[in-house]
Amino acid sequence: MHVKIIYRWCYEKLRNYNVFIPEENEYDNDDEVEAIDPLVITKLQKYSTWLYILLFLSSLYLLFFITLINPQSRRNVISSINPVRFEELYQKYNKTLSLTYDPVCKSTFVSSEWIKALYLENASRYGMLDFRTTANSQLIIPIK
What we know:
There is one protein chain. By secondary structure, this protein is mainly alpha-helical. It has helices at about 1-15, 40-70, 85-90, 105, 110-115, 130-140. The longest helix has about 30 residues, at about 40-70. It is elongated and about 100 Å long.
């Protein structure tokens, strides 16, 4: 019996719910020639409330559904990678695997050829402010 009473109470609350209840002074509008019946206004307000709630719930449902469907990406950083490990990852995640390199590591200015070119026989003939004078002591030739 109590379930039926609670159901009836909820039904009546939802049926009579009105978000757009005007203030007391909004009913008195002397500018209009035709007076609109307050029952008609209340009915239109309830329809607007139902439409508002329907659109609100539909929007919530849509946001929930999009969030549920959207795949979440996960980023893992592997600091020490070798060719064997890279092949394993590539076989497993070939569609989603992305590599990020440090721009300095990809630069041609750190290649072996570039560094070897800085080892000049007569580097002392350049001035002290010239980088070529001290470049060979600042860079190490990478071992490959």
